[in-house]
Write a structure and sequence with these properties.
This protein is mostly helical and about 90 residues long. About 85% of the residues lie in helices and about 0% in strands. It has one domain (about 20-90). The radius of gyration is 17 Å and the shape is elongated. The two termini are about 30 Å apart. The model has no long low-confidence stretch (mean pLDDT about 75).
Amino acid sequence: MREQQEPELIALDQRNLSAEEFHDQDAHRQDDRQNEGDDALDKGMMQLFTSNTNAVEIIKKKDLYQMLEIVTDKCEDAANVIESIIIKYV
């Protein structure tokens, strides 16, 4: 996993990038976030079903994990739309 930069540092780093370079870095960061979300879901589900948690808690947490996965997928979808706009107009 790559070390995360502070938002201000990212903005400073990107001032001198072309639109294409900025897009490439941003797409890579989005892929990293999606992969981190997938890894967290896998780890959480594995821990959930290997713990001695009661059935009601398992169902609640499983549903929560699945909702969070949907959120990360929607973020990826939004990033893809933005990417398409950048490609079309830049």
